[in-house]
Amino acid sequence: AGAETVKRAVQLDVASRFQESLVCYQEGIDLLLQVVKATTDEAKKHRYRQKISEYMTRAEDIKKHIEKEKQDGKYHKQIRIEENATGFGYEKLFHEYLTEIVSEVWVEDPYIRQVHQASRYLLYNFLRFCEMLIKGPCKVKTIHLLTSYDEGSGRSQQMTALEEIKQSLSNYGVTLNIDFSSSIHDREIRFNNGWMIKIGRGLDYFKKPQGRFSIGYCDFDLRPCHETTVDVFHIKHTKKM
């Protein structure tokens, strides 16, 4: 398993997918260290240690490269979510960027509104995103939401739902600031530690569940996704709305 993991790390490294490569190097190194502990053959131990040393050196080089890209504001990682793919719940997608220093979050999404629509549950999606922030490890104190008004009779329902989310967040010491724009079209999420995530479909990349008692209704990791692209950037200073 360790050999396969570092093999994958090398492939990702060659493809310049450095963040993913670093994760595989780290996992592979841990697995190989376990092999060394269980090996009694000193010659094999020596060979494993040499390889581990090489992988550790490369992992450190990648860390430095990523850090430099962050400092220069040039970091970019792209994730492609395939049609019907699973395993892309909010925690899985965002957890590595929600460090303990994150205290402020900006969400721009024009469609945080419909509760009942043929294929969309966007207010519920936003609520689940907020729940993820509450669980940490970040210490979020303020969430800024920029969206658009719902049309017609749906506006009242939208406002009621957002006010309920706002009140509920306040019980956890989190302030929700809500603004509306009739011209907003971009979808992006920003954290005050410099990370910015752009998702082609915004928070609405999950398919409608088969039913209220079907697998994936509650656990987004098990919910099939629509095809979309996620772009992750690191910038020196997160802009204000």
Automatic annotation (TrEMBL):
CDD domains from the UniProt entry: MIT_1, MIT_C
Domain of life: Eukaryota
Every MIT domain range: 1-71
InterPro entries: MIT_dom, MIT_dom_sf, MIT_domain_contain_protein1, MITD1_C, MITD1_C_sf, MITD1_N
A Pfam family: MIT_C
Protein name stated in the entry: MITD1 protein
